[in-house]
Specification:
mainly alpha
C-alpha cells in the first residue's frame, strides 16, 4: 500500500532505523547520567581528573619530560587519551563560578555524551556490517548492557577504551567497504596509531584486528587484505616505535617518568604468571570468572549470547556477520584463566563483554533481515531477541540506580573550598580516598585508599605526628572517639548535600576551616612514580608526587591548576 501512496518503502525503513538508534542513544544517556548533585567518590576517577587538570601546567615545547604535554600523554600507564578526553570535558564545562571549588556535574554530562557517542559508533559499525537492522540491533544491545552503564557512570579508563575500540573497528569496516577512498586509509592509519595510547590491552587488539579485517572484507584475498591493512600496519608501527623509545629511555636513564600502556600491561601479566601454579589453578578460576561475567550480562544478556551462538552455528554462513567474534573472544577468553581477584579481570571483563554483546547484535540483525527460508526459525527468534533486550534493559536500569546512589552528593566540593584556605602545614586526616581529597582541596590528606573506617582507626591512633583536622562521616564518630580525644579535637563544622552525603569536621576550635587566613596552596601535579610494579593480586598501586606552589593564595583566587 505504501507505493500506491507515493511513499518510498526504503526511506520509511531508514527513518524507522534512525528513530530506533536515537531511542537507544537517549536510553544510554539516561542510564549513564547520575541524579544531581553527584560527586567523585572513588580514587581512580579522582586521580584521572587530577591528571587532566594538571595538564594545564605542561607545554608541548617544554624540554623537561615531566612537564612536556606530549610526553605526559604518551607515558600515562593506563592510556593518555583517557586524560585527554577528560581534559576536553573540563574545557567544555567552562570555568567554575567559584575558582576554589570543583564541581563534577558538567563533567558527568560530558561523560554521558561520550557514552552516547559510543552507542552511535556501534550503530554505524552495525550499519556497515549488516545494514539498517545491524545499526538498530548493535546500538540496542550496547545501550541496554550493564557493562556499558558501569563503564560510563564512573570516569574509568574503560570508557575511553570502549570508545576508541569502536572507532578502530568502525574505521576497519569503512576501509574494507571503501578500499579506494583516501579518507578510509587516513582514518584507519590514524586510529592504528592512537589506539595503543587508549587501551592497556592493545596487544590483544594487535593480534585480533587482522583476523577481523580479513573477515569483514567483502571478497577476501591476499591482495585486497594487504591493501586494506597497510594503513593500520603503518600507524601501529609508529606507535610501537614510540613505545620502544620510551622503554629504551626508561632502561637507559632509570627514570620512571618514561612509562606506557605496554609496560603497564606486561607488568600486570608478569605478576599473574609469576604466581605459583597451584594458586592459578585453585578455586576454579574459569568458573568464578564465568559467574562474574554472567552476573554482569544478566539473564537477558546470557540468553541473548547463547541464542546468537546457536543461531550463528545453525544459520549464519557469511564471514562478515561473524567478524566481531574473534575480537570479542580475544578480550574475554584469556581473562578466564586469570585469577578473579586480579584487577585485570575486574576492569577489562566489562570491555570484553561489551564486544561480545556488539557481536551478538550483529548476529541478531541477520535474523531480522533474513526473508524466506525456514520461517519457523524467524518469528520465535525475533520474539526472543526482543525479550532479551527488555530483560537487559531492566538489569541496566538496576545498575544505573546503584551507580547513581554511589555517586550521590558532593559535600566535598564545599568542604574542599574551606579546607583549601588552611595553612599549608595543616595536617588533615579523613576516611575519604586520597585522590578525592586532592581533587577537592588541592592538597594531600592523611588517609589510605580502599580502606574501611574500622581499619583506619588503628592507623590514625598509631600516627606519630599531629592531626589538626579530622573529616569523617557522622556515623563513624564513635569509632574515632579515641583519636578525637587524643588530639583534643572538637566538632567545628558539619556539611551535607541534601542529606545524601554528610561529613563532620573535627578540629581545633580557634576558627575552623574557612575561618583562618588564606595560607599556602598545594596543587596536584603527578609527575613521577605513577605506578609501582603490580603486587601478587595483580593490583598496581600509584605513588603520586604533589608539587607545592610556594606562594600565598591570590586574593579570591585559586592556585595554578586548581580550578578546571
Amino acid at each position: 500500500m505504501l507505493p500506491s501512496w507515493g511513499i518510498d518503502r526504503s526511506k520509511v525503513g531508514a527513518f524507522a532505523a534512525l528513530l530506533a538508534v536515537s531511542c537507544s542513544a537517549v536510553i544510554g544517556f539516561a542510564l549513564t547520567r547520575p541524579s544531581m548533585p553527584a560527586g567523585v567518590h572513588d580514587s581512580d576517577s579522582a586521580h584521572y581528573i587530577v591528571e587532566a587538570i594538571s595538564l594545564e601546567q605542561t607545554s608541548p615545547w617544554d624540554a623537561r619530560p615531566e612537564w612536556n604535554t606530549l610526553v605526559r600523554v604518551a607515558t600515562f600507564p593506563w592510556g593518555g587519551l583517557h586524560v585527554v578526553l577528560l581534559k576536553i570535558g573540563l574545557w567544555l564545562s567552562g570555568p567554575s563560578p567559584d575558582p576554589c571549588e570543583f564541581r563534577a556535574g558538567s563533567l558527568y554530562g560530558f561523560w554521558s555524551a561520550v557514552a552516547v557517542a559510543s552507542i552511535l559508533l556501534a550503530a554505524v559499525l552495525g550499519g556497515l556490517l549488516r545494514g539498517r537492522w545491524g545499526a538498530v540491533m548493535a546500538s540496542g544491545f550496547v545501550a541496554a548492557s550493564v557493562p556499558h552503564v558501569r563503564m560510563y557512570t564512573q570516569f574509568s579508563q574503560l570508557g575511553t577504551t570502549a570508545f576508541f575500540s569502536l572507532l578502530l573497528l568502525t574505521a576497519g569496516a569503512w576501509r574494507a567497504s571503501c578500499p579506494g577512498r583516501t579518507g578510509s586509509a587516513i582514518g584507519l592509519g590514524l586510529m592504528g596509531f592512537l589506539y595503543p595510547f587508549a587501551d592497556n590491552m592493545a596487544l590483544v587488539m594487535w593480534l585480533a584486528f587482522p583476523v577481523y579485517l580479513w573477515l569483514v572484507l567483502p571478497h577476501p584475498d591476499r591482495r585486497a587484505f594487504a591493501g586494506a591493512i597497510a594503513p593500520y600496519a603503518i600507524g601501529s608501527s609508529l606507535a610501537i616505535a614510540g613505545m620502544a623509545c620510551l622503554i629504551g629511555l626508561r632502561w637507559a636513564t632509570g627514570a620512571t617518568v618514561y612509562d606506557c600502556t605496554l609496560i603497564h600491561f606486561v607488568g600486570r601479566a608478569m605478576s599473574v604468571v609469576s604466581r605459583p601454579t597451584h594458586a592459578l589453578l585453585a578455586g576454579g578460576t574459569a568458573a568464578v570468572t564465568l559467574r562474574t561475567a554472567a552476573s554482569l550480562l544478566g539473564t537477558g544478556g546470557v540468553a541473548a549470547v547463547v541464542m546468537a551462538a546457536l543461531y550463528a552455528a545453525a544459520r549464519v554462513r557469511r564471514s562478515r556477520d561473524l567478524c566481531l567474534a574473534p575480537v570479542a573472544l580475544a578480550y574475554t577468553v584469556p581473562l578466564l584463566f586469570v585469577p578473579p581477584d586480579a584487577t585485570l579481570v575486574g576492569e577489562y571483563i566489562q570491555h570484553g563483554l561489551q564486544l561480545v554483546l556488539l557481536a551478538t547484535g550483529v548476529i541478531a540483525a541477520h535474523l531480522w533481515s533474513t526473508t524466506g527460508g525456514d520461517a519457523k526459525w524467524i518469528l520465535p527468534g525475533r520474539i526472543a531477541s526482543v525479550a532479551c533486550l527488555v530483560l537487559m534493559l531492566l538489569s541496566a536500569r538496576g545498575a544505573a540506580r546503584s551507580a547513581s546512589r554511589a555517586e550521590a552528593g558532593e559535600t566535598w566540593a564545599t568542604l574542599g573550598r574551606k579546607l583549601s584556605t588552611l595553612p599549608v602545614d595543616t595536617v588533615i586526616a579523613s576516611t575519604t580516598e586520597e585522590e578525592v581529597g586532592i581533587l577537592y582541596t588541592g592538597r594531600r590528606i592523611l588517609t589510605r585508599n580502599d580502606t574501611l573506617p574500622t581499619d583506619l582507626v588503628p592507623f590514625f591512633e598509631a600516627w606519630p605526628g599531629r592531626i589538626d583536622y579530622l573529616v569523617i562521616r557522622p556515623t563513624d564518630q564513635n569509632q574515632f572517639a579515641d583519636v578525637i580525644a587524643r588530639h583534643r579535637l572538637r566538632l567545628v563544622d558539619t556539611a551535607s548535600d541534601a542529606g545524601r552525603d554528610e561529613w563532620s569536621v573535627f578540629g581545633l576550635p580557634a576558627g575552623g576551616p574557612g575561618g583562618g587566613r588564606a595560607g599556602l596552596y598545594h596543587y596536584a601535579v603527578t609527575v613521577v612514580d605513577r605506578a609501582t610494579p603490580p603486587n601478587e593480586s595483580g593490583r598496581s598501586e600509584r605513588q603520586s608526587e604533589i608539587l607545592p606552589f610556594e606562594g600565598a593564595a591570590p586574593e579570591g583566587g585559586a592556585p595554578p591548576g586548581r580550578a578546571p
